[in-house]
What does this fold into?
Amino acid sequence: MKTHDMINPKGSIVALVLLFFFLLAPALPEVSTYHSDEHFYTDAAVYMIQHSDYLSPHYADGSLRTKKPILTYWAIMAGFTTFGVNFFGARLPFLLAGCVMVWLTYRMAMQLFKTQRVALLAAAILASNMQFLVLCLRATPDILQVLFMNISLCGFIAIAFNRDTRLRNYVMIYFGAALVVLTKGLLGLVLVAFILVYHLLAHARDTAAVRITHIPVMVIAAATAFSWYAGMFLQHGEGALWSFYTDQIGGKVSGSELYIFANFKDYLWGVFRNFLPWSLVLVLGYAIDRKAVHDTVRQHRKQTIFIVGWFSLMLAIFIGSTDCRTRYLVPAYPLLAILVAALLWRLLDHRWNQRIWRWVSSVVIGLVSVAGVCLLAAGIFLQVHFAAGGAVLLGGAAAAVWGWKRNRTSMPPVMMGILLLAALSGPRGFVLPTLEFAPARSLTDCLLRSDRFGETIDVWSLSRANYLRQLYTLSHGRIRVHYFRPGNLPAQLENKPLVVLNNREKESNKSDDYGIERCGAVFRAPAFKTFYNVLLTGDRNAIYGSLQEPIFLARRIGGEQR
It folds into this structure.
């Protein structure tokens, strides 16, 4: 594929970052896509604001939480301070971090391969990566860790591969790693070790190699990295640091070979799945034209070793863990996206690989277009939000078709990245919030409606449903949820003044001492037969209503808050 087949790369990276932001922003305030880990950080940020304690994270019940360092809590507090205590404010800093990461991938690719089309494609591949996209919509440390690690790697690439020894690159290396330590912990030290060891091995015989160390920057960065830990030790003693150590190492390391082999398979499959369809095209292309891949690797030997080495280190760290999460490898995804982009462009010079790419592109465009039309129809018969999601999908398909017409030999892969971004973001922002409706806001309104309680409202539940974890943040810290032990609710509901019940619990625990109020509903995912019945009967409300599972609030009559 020729360079002139591409759209203007310089302006396109700005457009891609803006598109990434505006396609994902509608999903930020949605409580239905809430991840169970988010409440640890949002609850602590609310507690910090309430108690003006900006150094020590706490759980909603006031107990100390030092499992994770401070930076994530500060990011959420910044969002709360700017936009109010809500999930849009909590998650916005993390989406902005993802936008910076898309641009940073472009920059690192330019530094490594010196080619605009490789750089732009790498950014598009990362922007259309499902795992990366999901992390950008969560108020958790993961995407901040990815960003700070790659800021550090970007500074190292500028020095090691381009001999750019300006001060800013040393600052990027060591302060990027320091911010990792303040975000997630010990992986920041692993990052610095990797950079130093790689540089030593790669330039062992090169007497003219530039220095990778900068003592003043390293000392100040180290002091920054460990300042919070020192504060926690002075304020709360060694128990606070022990909790951190247990979370980082003690509770996750396993020497079992069963874990190692199972995790190895799961992690590699996770990478292949998250990089689809790029990974599939790469595998098929390699089967057809192995020489192109081998030539590219030989031509860019140092770059390939650097990228594969960083990914291998990430895999080695987590492969023996008892807690296997594919998101743990996302810090390696930006560099992997760069390598995949470089190999794909080389493979697409082959005639048969161009045919494979056209076939894959046609299938993806067709599937997304059909899904877009179906969502538009569902918007007419079920819920207007479906139509908005369908419009986003069809817009992505239109962009891909435009790219195809621009180059009749093979569709520019960047357009495929935009199509995939639209296909992943449209349903997440407009469709999933409807199908996975959460009653957190309506339940919060029910609890706050009464003025007979004081500042704190205690509510009990037998279920540990995800929506209950959102109440503390949505109520600005006023509602605290307590859980009964598994089993049937105690007699008389243990005389608790407020209890959340689902329909089954309501029927099996009736009591004259309680008034029951419906405070929202969760929705079961509809089957295809559901849509067929809507089209057949035309009774949208009846069908849609049948999917609801109501949630109730039981108030003890004459009860007092305890």
User: Anything to note?
Assistant: The CA atoms of residues 365 and 401 lie 8 Å apart. The chain has a mean pLDDT of 83.
